[in-house]
Amino acid sequence: xxxxxxxxxxxxxxxxxxxxxxxxxxxxxxxxxxxxxxxxxxxxxxxxxxxxxxxxxxxxxxxxxxxxxxxxxxxxxxxxxxxxxxxxxxxxxxxxxxxxxxxxxxxxxxxxxxxxxxxxxxxxxxxxxxxxxxxxxxxxxxxxxxxxxxxxxxxxxxxxxxxxxxxxxxxxxxxxxxxxxxxxxxxxxxxxxxxxxxxxxxxxxxxxxxxxxxxxxxxxxxxxxxxxxxxxxxxxxxxxxxxxxxxxxxxxx
Length: 253
Prior knowledge:
31% of the residues lie in helices and 26% in strands. It is of the alpha+beta class. The strands form four sheets. Strands 4-5-1-11 form a four-stranded mixed β-sheet, covered by helices on one side. It has a three-stranded antiparallel β-sheet with strand order 6-10-9.
């Protein structure tokens, strides 16, 4: 059953914006990844050991270390002190809440954490740009009729890039809603212009387009897309994405 539409949060005096942090697991040293192990809960250690391939183990440690360090910088708490629970759709959230919203996106070659202060939602997704052709192959099953028409109207050389844009934006939105793939992907559309992308909804998926803002960045051959909730009567927040990974992020505690 689809969750009811939530009211946008009240406007705040100052929106600190959305901060992105990212790491490339293959670029991390074994020593950096080893620092993450003592921060993990028993359940997280079991999950880490369950991965068969080293690249997935590295991805998992990089992701868990990234979110713990990002949260610790925001609240001056030890990285090992954070605890997480999942909502009914599997989205991780802080336990107990502490006035922060975060979201994670991970791929074996890049992991990303989005963070903002307050109660307004944020979602992030990441995909290698090289996957555009794969997304095109399943376009008819995941994109709306309007998106498909706009995609097919593009020159063939531009279609793979548009497909990656659509896929990551859709993922960022459903993650910001905290409902994942329980939301029907073909019932909302992204419309592109020189100013960026806007979302539109069918009657089957009630939501307010003015409630959301979107942006995207390319880093290390990956597309990072961000969806963030806009305060009622406010303006879209500033979204910051560093050009390079933070070399000190997993250094020390």
